[in-house]
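Quick one: structure for this chain?
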Amino acid sequence: MEEYNRIKIQHICSNICSGGTPKSTVTEYYGGNIPWLNTKEINFNQIYKTEKTITNEGLNNSSAKWIPAKSVIVAMYGATAGKAAINRIPLTTNQACCNLMINPTKADYRFVYYALCNDYTYLASLANGGAQQNLNAQQIKDFAIPLPSLEGQKRIANILSSLDDKIELNRRINENLEQQAQALFKSWFVDFEPFKDGKFVDSELGMIPEELTISRIGDIPHTIESGRRPKGGAVLKGIPSIGAENIKGLGYYDYSKTKYIPEDFALTTNRGKVYGYELLIYKDGGKPGYFIPNYTIFGEGFPFDEMYINEHVFRLDFMSKEYNVFAYFYMQTPYIMNQLNSIGGKAAIPGINTKDVESLPIFNGDNKKIQEFGNLVLPMITTILRNCRENARLAQLRDTLLPRLMSGKLKFSETTI
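Got it. Here's what it folds into:
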């Protein structure tokens, strides 16, 4: 076993700086072509794009500055304090980002990133303040990480980054597939391109093709139910229980938020089991007076071989994977989202019930174009969910290898992936 000496971050950087925020009240400062990073986007990840952009005028009238690609960025303020990211594109950041430009003759930027990921708990514990826990640039400069030889750093980084590269590739494939499915849905069932030569009629959804029949969800064969949890709430081990925090898009699942119900409770409960390809709906909670419905679909065995929803989630199943997939995209159309928001926002505790869902209009699945859409898109969804499952396995392997590689306890010959 090799013991690695530790060295302060400031000794392996060519430059360390923070960023700045253009004045938010000046609209001319935002919406340009300059990527601008906020700390909430830093989450042990690779940055390929940012949520916001600024203009040259915004850059020149603030402390924001260009950060070259392949820098390591550490969040200093708020919920993400101590978390790190690598920017794969040149970008600017706000003042809560500590931007580390690694000297390539002293350290591999990827290794530094993984070292900070491995030591996150300790780094985050250094944050101080009141309601918001903050780090400062000097604490990060003085933070010491293990540092093997440059060759050793590269070998360790190659092992870990090969896993992250595959995860990123799968993520991009998934993003592309979902965009294709969304574009097809919009073309067929929002713009009605396949029906443009036919007759259109007025409806509660606006002008629609005459051949598309509107039914109520409650009038179409289906099952809808919420789950439940035992008295005393979640337990540390058992059967995974899916909550509202994981109903955030196709195949989304945050393993750090997994909760469990006892195995004997799962055996006796009569509702809430997820079999795969049902539409899961976030049903209650959130900001008073405002309700935002969210949806997801999980495949068989993803994210777990056996799982149940809790009382904050609906499981809606039309007994057809293809029609469930159609419904996933349909339920996110503006009309349906506004309907549910209007209903759910009126409750003292924002939310919807089964009757609210069953009263919604939806195109009947008998139409051949709806059937064709399901047949075309279901394989895309299956691929997305398969990639999500593979990414979970790769992330687990990476997180298992990380501390052993950083400590020198694992020999390179043992890292067959």
